[in-house]
Amino acid sequence: MRPNNDRRMRMSAMSFDETSRILDDAGGALHYHEAGSGEVLLLLHGSGPGVTGWANFGRNLPFFAERFRTIILDLPGYGKSAPVDGLPVPAAVDAVRRFLDGMGIEKAHILGNSYGGIVGGQFAAAYPDRVRRFVTIGGIGVWILSTFPAEGLTRLVDFVEQPSRERLVQWLESMVFDKSILTEELMEMRWKSATDPVTMETSKKMYTRQALEAIAAFNRGPDAAQGFAYLPKIKAPTLIAWGRDDRVNPLDGALVPMRLIPNAELHVFPNCGHWAMIERKAEFENVVMAFLTRD
């Protein structure tokens, strides 16, 4: 049942502050936003300078909160969540486990964008009994035709190694198909967040020329298959969402996950870059809602 008009208006008026929460545990503070009721839908953001859960999914929260208890989590070192030691992806997977345990949530739908898709996919593989359905947006790719790194990752490293507002804008432009969505307000918000020392330190753990060269060498080496060996272990019904014009993770990256995840389907959004949830907001929300509520 869809909400009445009064409830719809309340949902559309959700703000950062009124939905903001903190979960403190032995691993450090985990910041999140929460709204709605019902089955839990956990949203995991991407990576890069200026990224937070709210920046990725704040505009989608009212829609999904109509049907689900919707939670947007800031992964360690992003937004208001405390940084942690160790490699970013394993640390983030553990943070998801900590968060669900701390909130008393036994099972959830998980939706991840880019880095959040990798984290969500590895969590779904490691804890199959805790994931109802899994949605990833351009995050778990295995590139078989495109060169690595793609333009978006190269521009991201350019910014991380020599931060400037100009380089931030160049990176943001590589994330989208339609540059008109990059408003001055959005770019200013990203600039302030990206230059935060904690956020920058998190970015430096992942995005350096040396790190990309190591990934490229691994992908060409004899153990390359280990990088996607977790995919067949994802047992949850899976929706792979991708922008046709993604210049960060090109579309051919979807082919191997689509084949290896046992119960996966692929939806490609035209005229769309790396941010399907922002750039094709209405279509994305409707496709995901239909998938999550399918009998």
UniProtKB/TrEMBL annotation:
Q: Which residues form the AB hydrolase-1 domain?
A: 40-280
Q: Which UniProt keywords apply?
A: Hydrolase
Q: Which GO terms describe its molecular function?
A: hydrolase activity
Q: Which GO terms describe its cellular component?
A: membrane
Keyword Signal applies: no
Q: Does the keyword Hydrolase apply?
A: yes
Q: Which top-rank group of organisms is this from?
A: Bacteria
* InterPro entries xrefs: AB_hydrolase_1 (IPR000073), AB_hydrolase_fold (IPR029058), AB_hydrolase_sf (IPR050266), Epox_hydrolase-like (IPR000639)
Its name, as the record gives it, is Alpha/beta hydrolase
Which source organism?
A: Edaphosphingomonas fennica
